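Example 4.3 (complexes with small molecules)
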Amino acid sequence: METKKKTVGRPKKAKAAPKEQRHGWNSEPEVGVFLASLIRLTGAQTVLEIGVFEGYTAKDIIDVLPKGGLYIGIDIKDYVKPENKAAFIKASKEGKVIEQVIENSLTYLPKLPKNHFDIVFIDSQHTFDHVIKEFKMCESLITKKGIIAFHDSIHVEDVKKVVDYAAHWNYETININTPEGRGIALVTKK
Ligand SMILES: C[S@@+](CC[C@H](N)C(=O)[O-])C[C@H]1O[C@@H](n2cnc3c(N)ncnc32)[C@H](O)[C@@H]1O
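Answer. The structure with S-adenosylmethionine bound is encoded below.
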């Protein structure tokens, strides 16, 4: 029997900065690979990232989006590295819809369509007051089976608290470790 095998993630020669050179704001490369796998597994077509920074995770997400798929990345500042900008442009030419928004998430999220995103990745400012606001705004943006992912959900207590809050309010949650002990949590409506 013929089986279809797809490899997800950065090819060996890809430019994931090694740990010692990577800015602490970048997620571990495995987080991008994990999100890309999740997109493939669930067939997600619409993805929102809050806190893009240099765009490494964004690139992993965009690479696996299907033609016609939508990626919106929000950040208060444009830090995206040229190689990742190039990936955004290439993806646009391939028929994916890529939008980089430079704005505060708290003013931009209310402008987005409701019930629209299959996956939202929350990874901006990590204080409880901020993350809880983003979470509450994103609740209405995700589709029925949509997933909200949080990075730093183990080592940042404030992020973990928001995940615990979601668990208390009728969300299925998993919080798993990542190679640097920072964690990634997934929450979805029960
Ligand atoms: C941890 S970095 C994001 C890392 C990226 N998601 C990744 O996985 O590589 C956090 C980013 O959030 C941005 N940020 C902080 N507060 C924000 C806000 N209120 N709205 C939008 N972006 C914000 C910062 O400028 C920074 O680039």
